């Protein structure tokens, strides 16, 4: 059976062997929270919709103090040319400028190191391309969350923003967020740890933390 090995584990720091890996770890040092999101190939339809959406949501990521970094196995020249398509898709001037960098990982330094390759999707040379991976790093430069989508399934960037809100909240307070949780459920009512929330759907967990419910 074929196995994919994800070498970066949750709550683990980033391992910086390799040229791009070193570049990425240096980049990580320059910001607080960070998201690394890979896509299979430049100039493909689903990837264009995803990076267009990511570009539109860049102000929301900035508000959360999250540095955005994209990556694929294409060259810088391709990234720049494709950025024009992405901006045009968003109804904007077709310039080469996007609100985030796209790493040129054509040597697959980072893709191999971080288990980002999709063995089912190959380039014209028969080499696997990157899957749609999401890695979110915290201020301590450790991985806080990873989501892995195949090339054939586009991501939901609202969900990515939602999990970042939860990650940042749960990093600050001793709480856990329940199924389908959204921040508007508890706007202005985030209890300060360790006091217990008063709402009927709050629940202490055996770990000592509590769930935040919709009715606080
Ligand atoms: C796309 O972005 O459209 C795509 C890329 C790789 C495989 C399938 C779809």
Automatic annotation (TrEMBL):
Organism name: Panthera leo
Domain annotation Thioredoxin: ranges: 8-169
Family membership: Belongs to the peroxiredoxin family. Prx6 subfamily.
Highest taxon above the source species: Eukaryota
GO molecular function: 1-acylglycerophosphocholine O-acyltransferase activity; calcium-independent phospholipase A2 activity; glutathione peroxidase activity; identical protein binding; ubiquitin protein ligase binding
Residues making up the signal peptide according to the UniProt record: none
GO cellular component assignments: cytosol; mitochondrion; nucleus; perinuclear region of cytoplasm
GO biological process: cell redox homeostasis; glycerophospholipid catabolic process; positive regulation of mRNA splicing, via spliceosome; response to oxidative stress
Keywords: Antioxidant, Oxidoreductase, Peroxidase, Redox-active center
Identification of the protein by name: Peroxiredoxin 6
């Amino acid at each position: 059976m074929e196995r994919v090995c994800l070498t970066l584990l949750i709550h683990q720091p980033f391992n910086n062997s390799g040229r791009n890996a070193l570049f990425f770890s240096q980049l990580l040092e320059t910001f607080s929270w960070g998201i690394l999101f890979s896509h299979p190939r430049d100039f493909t339809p689903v990837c264009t919709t995803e990076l267009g959406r990511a570009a539109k949501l860049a102000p929301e990521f900035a508000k959360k103090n999250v540095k955005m970094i994209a990556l694929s196995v294409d060259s810088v020249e391709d990234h720049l040319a494709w950025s024009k398509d992405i901006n045009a898709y968003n109804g904007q001037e077709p310039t080469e400028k996007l609100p985030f960098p796209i790493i040129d990982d054509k040597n697959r330094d980072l893709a191999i190191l971080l288990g980002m390759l999709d063995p089912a999707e190959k380039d014209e040379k028969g080499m696997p391309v990157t899957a749609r991976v999401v890695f979110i790093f915290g201020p301590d430069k450790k991985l806080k969350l990873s989501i892995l989508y195949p090339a054939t399934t586009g991501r939901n960037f609202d969900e990515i923003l939602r999990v970042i809100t939860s990650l940042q909240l749960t990093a600050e307070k001793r709480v856990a967020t329940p199924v389908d949780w959204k921040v508007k459920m508890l706007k202005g009512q985030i209890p300060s740890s360790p006091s217990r929330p008063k709402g009927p759907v709050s629940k202490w967990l055996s770990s000592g933390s509590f769930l935040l419910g919709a009715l606080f």
